Amino acid sequence: MKSITISGKDAGQRLDRFITKTFDRLPKSLMFKEIRKKNIKINRKRCTAGQILNENDVLELYLSDDVLHVKEKYYDFLKASSELDIIYEDDNIILLNKKAGILCHPDGKDYTDNLVARLKKYLYKNGEWNPDTSSFIPSLANRIDRNTGGIVIGAKNSQALKILNNKIKSREIEKYYLAVVHGRMPRKSEVLTAYLTKDEKKNMVAVTDSQTPGSKQIITQYTVLDYYDDVSLLEISLMTGRTHQIRAHLAYIGHPLYGDGKYGFEKGRYRQALYSYKLKFDFKDKNALSYLNGKVFQAKNIKLSDKFKEREYV
Which of 50, 153, 292, 313 has the lowest tally of Cβ within 10 angstroms? Predict the structure, then answer.
């Protein structure tokens, strides 16, 4: 005998359709026969094939195990890789160290293996999320370009996602980047200001000193951490967050990122030396994530840093 309690998502449908959808080895002819013989009951009472199911109804099937095989459910995200570099995790959020070359979200070519799919798979396998019973879908609060590595914030519930989105917008989550650029910077530290215009069709941006139609102001702060020969290692913080801001802004002042085939010198290469390596939570109010306030999280084992130490940028 098998007993199933009807959930809210399954309520409202006919009994015969629910049974057909649930058990893949139970022939329809046998199902109708067993309903007539009272070997299939709802709430221990006789039922009909067309009876509408209600939430919390108890369906009982007094049948042999060989015909009560439950269909295995299939989810696209289970095709994703299980590889995740977790920096921090609690009941509300998860900080992931994304490697360069991985998409945050699916696109037309790479639909199954991306960071959000890996997150869904991880939470599903751990029993923290079930797409059949949860109206919330695990989400990323920020995103990083495919060929840029670094920290991405995942939300495990809707409340956390709403707070994270608001705090990122209000700059109460500070993001710091490492970048390796061509040339020695003119100053040890500087705040750069300019204007950026986006070309949606080309997926590129243009930077100008003065405002032009459709442009938005960009403010980029850098500090030189180290240098050798004609190469500089920078820590960068953004006071505005525009598309390709770091790459385009540094290229505009004559110091493009190494490996940047779009804005830099190495045309055709798309593995820019940029890494979102550190996060700081600096909330101005009380909220459900206030326990994170003041905490700083930093990625480890950054290849960009290792390559710089070994003087591989030439």
Answer: 50
